[in-house]
Amino acid sequence: MPVRLSFIFLLLLTCSPALKAQSSDVTDFQENHKPSLALYFYPSTLRMINLQRNAEYDEMISELKKARFLKLDSGAVTQADLTLLAEKLLKAGYEEMMLMKSADTDIRILGLEKKVPEVVVIARNGYESNLMEISGMINIAKIPKLLESFNSGGFLDVLNLNKQKNEPRPHD
Amino acid sequence: MKYLLTILALGVALITQAQNDVVTKLFNEYYNDAQFTKISVSSKMFELFTQIEPGDKDEQEILAAISKLKGLKVIATDSVANSRQLYTNAVKKISAGGYAELLEVKDAQEDMKFMINEKNGVITELVMVVGGKKGFFIMSLFGEIDLKQISKLSKSMNVKGMEYLKNLDGAEEKK
User: Rounded to two decimals, what is the model's pTM?
Assistant: First the structure.
């Protein structure tokens, strides 16, 4: 009986409207707009980027559960599509956390406060749009120390892996 | 007596509102101008960071400084010909709104002013205005502001423009 109750509880939890709404909006968007690049990060993959085993970085991401990064070319998505996504997220309980607007860049950060916070970053510039969904927290207090060591390299540039692969090597 | 207190409270609320309106009006003025970068951070962003467990003392201070903030607004540009005029106009409007001048730095490259809005001995808003040859920058940080904590935060964050806040540490000690 306790096993069955746990199963029902788990089922109710995973089917709760808030949880379903927040994840399905970004998933629906991904399905409808076919990104040119989709990356999924989990604690293990996020640690793999850290080539030199920077302790500050590992601690910064320790509360991060998963992240999804989507890159969409300008033809695949319009400003109206992104505004509609933001509106859907706001209806699902997300709140506006940050807004940045300049001549060629628009960035909106929306957050849903719960035990494991959810953050969605919607960014658009002249030639592409990026979408990032993060479950969990980034420990912002670690950033200053991380910045000190960040310029020394030691991190895998996952967003430009294709470019690096295609660039001619020095001996070619 | 109650009536008088109510009028007094309403008066204080209206004055405070008027002060906030000065900076908000400046932001709205430049909001649709493509030459300016506009950044607005809400209290939600800062609230999220209160969930983080600090490690050492430095982290504790950074998180303490962040957790008391209610919002941040920035207007910036580096490509306007009349930046000095924008700076003068902004400082004039903010001063007229009842903000007190905290610190002023002038050199050949740029003019810079820090102004504060204080309520019952607590700084509720810090405004930084910078005017250079072609650049113009306004930052409004609001909430409960501890200048020492904010200056420590600015020292550790290696972000362009934030280095100006380092000067506040000394300014507060002189007060």
Answer: 0.72
For A59-71, letters b (16+ CB in 10 Å) and e give bbbbbbeebbbbb
Query: Which of A96, A100, A141 lies at the smallest CB-CB distance from B59?
Result: A141
Helices (H), chain B: 2-31, 43-49, 57-67, 83-96, 147-156, 167-174
Q: Please write the tens of the pLDDT for every residue from B122-154.
A: 889 989 899 988 899 998 988 988 877 777 666
pLDDT per residue as tens digits for the range B61-119:
777 778 888 888 989 998 888 898 999 999 999 999 889 998 888 888 888 898 999 88
Contacts of A141 in chain B (CB under 8 A): 49, 52, 54-55, 58-59, 62-63
- Say which of B42, B66, B158 has its CB closest to residue A97: B42
Distance between CA B130 and CA B84 in Å, rounded?
9
- Which sequence spans correspond to the domains of chain B? 2-174
